[in-house]
Amino acid sequence: MVKNHKITINLCYYKRKISTKRRMSMDIFNKMGEELTNAGIGIAKVTKEMTENAKLHASITAEEAKIREQYRIIGEKYYKQCKNTEQEELLSEEYREAFDKIAISKWKINEAKETLADRKGSIICPECGARVAKEAVFCSKCGAKI
Ligand SMILES: [Zn+2]
Q: Residue 120 C-alpha to ligand 1 middle, in angstroms?
């Protein structure tokens, strides 16, 4: 009987010990779960913020492009308003430089267009490589039959 009683006490002791261990491990699990949940919330927040940041960057880029387009429109209007008027004569040095650059570019465009038009209406002599009119029968440079 005494022995049995001792065994019962011992069993109770182990049960308590086990349940304490289990409680501790449950606490650890709960804590881990909590931390994981917090980490999950943190990651979700960071991801959401990253998405929002990307949208904000895209919005800034889009608005900057709109501003540049408006600057371009203002510039073109100002250019046309000044071109070939008294205003062009009165331009300050910084505007003068831009007007000159536009004039040079327009000249280059015209040159290129003229070259393309000439090439369209002519062919290259297979003998000497000279450019001759499409309808020519003989090359004007080397006299070869075309
Ligand atoms: Zn030729």
A: 18
How far does residue 99's CA lie from ligand 1's centre (Å)? 42
In a domain, 21, yes or no: yes
The predicted-structure confidence for 68-124, as pLDDT tens digits, reads as follows 999 999 999 999 999 988 888 889 998 999 999 999 999 999 999 999 999 999 999
CA 116 – ligand 1 centroid, Å: 20
In which domain, by residue range, is 57 found?
1-63
Output the pTM of the full model. 0.55
Q: Is residue 14 part of a domain?
A: yes
Q: Is residue 105 part of a domain?
A: no
Q: What total number of domains does the chain contain?
A: 1
Instruction: Report the interhelical angle of 2-82 vs 93-120 (nearest 10°).
Output: 80
Question: Is 71 among the domain residues?
Answer: no
CA–centroid distance, 145 to ligand 1, in Å, is: 8
CA 109 to ligand 1 centroid distance, Å: 29
Lowest mean pLDDT among 9-18, 44-53, 121-130: 9-18
- Residues 12-51 as b/e (b if ≥16 CB within 10 A, e otherwise) read eeeeeeeeeeeeeeeeeeeeeeeeeeeeeeeeeeeeeeee
